Amino acid sequence: xxxxxxxxxxxxxxxxxxxxxxxxxxxxxxxxxxxxxxxxxxxxxxxxxxxxxxxxxxxxxxxxxxxxxxxxxxxxxxxxxxxxxxxxxxxxxxxxxxxxxxxxxxxxxxxxxxxxxxxxxxxx
Length: 124
Known about the structure:
The chain is mainly β. Helix content is 0%, strand content 49%.
């Protein structure tokens, strides 16, 4: 069983930064793809950034390239999303996701079975 718990959301002014964290509990996978998604009201869930635990190569949506950084703390497998130069369009509920994988990773939400509860990010 995999449980993901996000934290770090909040309300900030445009141009400011936030860092989200996703702590995996009862983590049974030694290898996995982990990712951040977001969903604004009335919009589909959008992939933001992904990284495989083993190869560590990040991939970003065009809308966040150069502003957001995804990382994984190796010992605890805590997933982070550093968000800089935030814009009002970044406002959404942010979710972390994880899926057992031996190399593949994706920003397609259908790839993932395990999701966190979400954390709200509001940029004004």
